[in-house]
Amino acid sequence: xxxxxxxxxxxxxxxxxxxxxxxxxxxxxxxxxxxxxxxxxxxxxxxxxxxxxxxxxxxxxxxxxx
Length: 66
Prior knowledge:
The protein is mainly beta. The chain is about 0% helix and about 30% strand.
């Protein structure tokens, strides 16, 4: 398996703050793009759904946008 590492994530939003698409740039030069065609707001999610262990990623900036 080839190890690829995340280099950059970009979230593109419209003028009225709706998400349009996400691009993920990897350090090996590959780019993955996700187009958002629909989404639902105000969904009930348990706190455990978004569990993040900051010790595993000490340099990550965590922004909770719930």
